[in-house]
Design goal:
The protein folds into two domains: 169 residues, no CATH class; 209 residues, Rossmann fold, CATH 3.40.50.620. The protein is 43% helix and 9% strand. The chain has a four-stranded mixed beta sheet with strand order 8-7-6-9. Strands 1-2-3 form a three-stranded parallel beta sheet, with helices on both faces. Strand 6 and strand 7 form a beta hairpin. Helix 15 runs antiparallel to helix 16. The longest helix has 15 residues. The radius of gyration is 22 Å and the shape is globular. The relative contact order is 0.15.
Length: 411
C-alpha cells in the first residue's frame, strides 16, 4: 500500500480559536483553553486590571536601591534596545526614576530607515551612553541561511543575539542589573501569571528565544550543510559562563512586572514626549505602523513563515493584543486577519538577494516546516481552516513524495 493511500484515510486537523481573541490552538506560543474556549493569554491579561501598579513601582524602586552600590559605579543598569516603541518606553521609565542606563543594541542588519532614525533619536533624547553592535555581515548571511534550513526562521541569529550580547556587556562592564520589557510568552500566551514576577533566564533564552538551539548547535549544523562556521565567528552568541554570571551577579528583570504594559499607550507617550516615529508606509502583514521597525523582515517575510508553519501571522498577534486592550473588537481583528495573514510580502526580494537564494528554493524549504496540526493537502494544494469558518487553499504543494509523510491528504 502506498503512502498516498495510507495518508488519504487520515482526518483533517481540528483547529479551534479562542472565543475572545483570534489565536488558534496551533499557536507557536503554547496556549491552554478553558471550558469556554478562552485562551490562557486572554485569561492572564485580565490580571493587569487587578494589580496595584503604584505599589509595584515602589517595589521597582526598592529593587534599584539594592543595586546602587554594586557593580559599575557609572551605570545603574543595562537596557537592551532595538530603538522600537518598547525600547523608548523602557528608557523613559529608567530616566524618570533618575537612574543612568547603558543602552545596548544587537544589530541584525535589517533596519528600516525609520527604525534606524529611531535608534539615533534614543541617543539624542535620553542622554544615555549607547553600544551599537553589528556582527560580521558574512556571518549573518550564513546564519540567515542556516536558520532557515533548520527551523524555517532566518532571524534565529537575531532572537538569540538580542538576549546574548547585552548579557556579555553586563559581564564585561560589571553591570548586574539588566532591564527587559515584557516576557513575550506571558504577554502573548499567558505562560506565566503577572503575579509570578518571572525573570530572565538562560533556559528561557535557549528554549524560547533560540528555539532550542544554541551557538554550539549551529557549528554542527553548518558542517552538515557544508557551510564554514567557526567558534570565533560565533562569539557574539556565546553566553557567559555560570562563573562569570555569578561573579557579577547578573539579573534580568521584566519591567512589565512593575509598570503597566500596553503597547498602544506606550506608543502615544513616546511619540509625544520623544518624537518616536511610526512607519511612513503601511505594512502588508499588519495594520499597526509602530511595531518591529528595527527589522524589515519581522513584520514581513519572517512573519510570513509563521503563517506557513502555523497558519497565522502578525495581524493575529496584534489583533489579539488589541482585543485584550479593548482597542478593537474581535470582528475588526478577524477582518484584518483575513486581509493580511496570508500575504507573501515584498521584502522577500531583498532577503533572497541578501543570501543568494531563489524564490523556488525558499518555497520548497518553507513547505517542509508546515505544521500538520494546521495544514492538509487537497488536489495538490495546501488547505487550512480559518477563523471565519470556511477552509481555504493557500498555494500549491512543492514537497517531494518522501516529504508527504508529515501531512494529511484529502481526496
Amino acid at each position: 500500500m502506498s503512502d498516498k493511500i495510507i495518508l488519504s484515510n487520515m482526518k483533517k486537523p481540528e483547529i479551534h480559536y479562542c472565543s475572545k481573541c483570534v489565536y488558534p490552538s496551533s499557536s507557536a506560543v503554547t496556549l491552554s483553553f478553558d471550558e469556554n474556549f478562552i485562551c490562557s493569554g486572554c485569561s492572564v491579561s485580565k490580571e493587569k486590571n487587578k494589580i496595584n501598579y503604584f505599589e509595584r513601582k515602589k517595589q521597582l524602586l526598592d529593587l534599584f536601591r539594592k543595586y546602587e552600590n554594586k557593580g559599575n559605579q557609572l551605570y545603574d543598569c543595562i537596557i537592551p534596545v532595538s530603538g522600537g516603541k518598547d525600547s523608548f518606553f523602557q528608557a523613559h521609565i529608567i530616566k524618570e526614576l533618575g537612574y543612568n542606563a547603558l543602552l545596548v543594541t544587537y544589530n541584525a542588519n535589517n533596519y528600516s530607515k525609520t527604525g534606524l532614525r529611531n535608534v539615533e533619536k534614543m541617543r539624542e533624547v535620553f542622554g544615555f551612553d549607547h553600544i551599537f553592535f553589528t556582527p560580521a555581515i558574512k556571518t549573518l548571511k550564513k546564519l540567515n541561511k542556516l536558520g532557515m534550513l533548520v527551523m524555517g526562521d532566518m532571524n534565529w541569529h537575531a532572537h538569540l543575539g538580542i538576549v546574548t550580547y547585552p548579557i556579555k556587556v553586563a559581564v564585561e562592564k560589571n553591570i548586574p542589573l539588566v532591564i527587559w520589557g515584557e516576557h513575550g510568552r506571558s504577554e502573548l500566551g499567558g505562560m506565566f501569571s503577572n503575579y509570578d514576577f518571572i525573570e530572565f533566564s538562560f533556559r528561557d533564552r535557549v528554549e524560547h528565544d533560540g528555539r532550542g538551539y544554541d551557538w554550539s548547535h549551529m557549528l554542527e549544523i553548518a558542517d552538515k550543510f557544508g557551510e564554514k562556521l567557526s567558534k570565533k565567528e560565533m562569539d557574539p552568541w556565546i553566553y557567559p559562563s555560570d562563573e562569570e554570571i555569578d561573579r557579577v551577579g547578573v539579573r534580568g528583570i521584566y519591567i512589565a512586572n512593575y509598570i503597566y504594559w500596553e503597547a498602544n499607550e506606550h506608543t502615544k507617550l513616546v511619540k509625544k514626549k520623544y518624537g518616536f516615529l511610526e512607519s511612513s508606509e503601511p505594512f502588508e502583514r499588519t495594520y499597526r505602523k509602530a511595531s518591529n521597525l528595527d527589522d524589515i523582515h519581522e513584520n514581513g517575510i519572517h512573519d510570513y513563515l509563521k503563517f506557513v508553519k502555523f497558519g497565522y501571522g502578525r495581524a493575529s498577534d496584534h489583533g489579539s493584543k488589541d482585543i485584550r486592550a479593548k482597542k478593537i473588537t474581535r470582528a475588526q481583528a478577524i477582518r484584518e486577519v483575513k486581509k493580511r495573514d496570508h500575504i507573501k510580502s515584498k521584502d522577500l526580494k531583498r532577503w533572497l538577494k541578501y543570501v543568494g537564494w531563489t524564490e523556488k528554493k525558499f518555497d520548497a524549504v518553507s513547505d517542509t516546516f508546515r505544521d500538520p496540526r494546521t495544514w492538509w493537502i487537497k488536489n495538490g494544494k495546501w488547505m487550512k481552516n480559518n477563523i471565519w469558518g470556511k477552509p481555504s487553499s493557500y498555494g500549491r504543494v512543492n514537497l517531494t513524495k518522501n516529504q508527504w509523510s508529515k501531512f494529511y491528504i484529502e481526496k
